[in-house]
TrEMBL record:
<dbReference type="InterPro" id="IPR029068">
    <property type="entry name" value="Glyas_Bleomycin-R_OHBP_Dase"/>
</dbReference>
<dbReference type="InterPro" id="IPR051785">
    <property type="entry name" value="MMCE/EMCE_epimerase"/>
</dbReference>
<keyword id="KW-0479">Metal-binding</keyword>
<dbReference type="GO" id="GO:0004493">
    <property type="term" value="F:methylmalonyl-CoA epimerase activity"/>
</dbReference>
<protein>
    <submittedName>
        <fullName>Catechol 2,3-dioxygenase-like lactoylglutathione lyase family enzyme</fullName>
    </submittedName>
</protein>
<dbReference type="Pfam" id="PF00903">
    <property type="entry name" value="Glyoxalase"/>
</dbReference>
<keyword id="KW-0223">Dioxygenase</keyword>
<dbReference type="GO" id="GO:0016829">
    <property type="term" value="F:lyase activity"/>
</dbReference>
<keyword id="KW-0456">Lyase</keyword>
<dbReference type="GO" id="GO:0046872">
    <property type="term" value="F:metal ion binding"/>
</dbReference>
<dbReference type="InterPro" id="IPR037523">
    <property type="entry name" value="VOC_core"/>
</dbReference>
<dbReference type="InterPro" id="IPR004360">
    <property type="entry name" value="Glyas_Fos-R_dOase_dom"/>
</dbReference>
<keyword id="KW-0560">Oxidoreductase</keyword>
<feature type="domain" description="VOC">
    <location>
        <begin position="11"/>
        <end position="154"/>
    </location>
</feature>
<dbReference type="GO" id="GO:0051213">
    <property type="term" value="F:dioxygenase activity"/>
</dbReference>
<dbReference type="GO" id="GO:0046491">
    <property type="term" value="P:L-methylmalonyl-CoA metabolic process"/>
</dbReference>
Length: 164
């Protein structure tokens, strides 16, 4: 099957998550997703630093390939990283949302790897002020470095077009 060339921004390739310790982060994300990283490597040098707006850089990284998105797990060796902390309501805060078919099974997986949701998971109902999407379940949690993560069992307009 021939792949259509995309010149716009209609397809995502990866999300990068900067972590304190690459080995620990690999353990977490492999346990969370059930997927093994495809490679572990290092990248750096003047050209990489320049493209990132840095003076110098050395990055240890791993790639995790999900069905529809790749996750780059990045440990900056140089320059030494600063710790950021974002709540979901802060401007420029981002989160990564994992789509699941069974919310209860996903919550059990979190519990099995020692992760507790930020609050009680919810299922959207009419009183939540939505026009549609009733039955969509969501829960928020964090990785060991404080990255905001979400799980969603989508219904209605929260489902992708090819899944409706």
């Amino acid at each position: 099957m021939e792949r259509k060339t995309v010149n716009g921004f209609s397809r995502a390739n990866h999300v990068g998550i900067t972590v304190k310790n690459l080995d620990k982060a690999i353990q977490f994300y492999e346990a969370l997703t059930g997927v093994k990283v495809s490679n572990v490597d290092e990248i750096g040098g003047a050209r990489m630093a320049k493209v990132q707006g840095l003076d110098k850089t050395l990055i240890k990284y791993a790639n995790l390939h999900l069905d529809n998105l790749n996750i780059d797990i990045l440990e900056y060796v140089e320059p030494a990283p600063d710790r950021a902390s974002y709540k979901n309501n802060q401007i420029s805060a981002m989160h990564l949302c994992f789509e699941v078919d069974d919310m209860e099974a996903a919550l059990q997986r979190l519990k099995a790897i020692g992760v507790e949701p930020e609050g009680e998971p919810i299922v959207f109902q009419e009183e939540d002020g939505l026009k549609a999407g009733f039955g969509t379940a969501v829960a928020y949690f964090q990785d060991p470095d404080g990255t905001n993560l979400e799980i969603i069992a989508p219904q209605g307009p929260f489902k992708r077009k090819n899944e409706a």
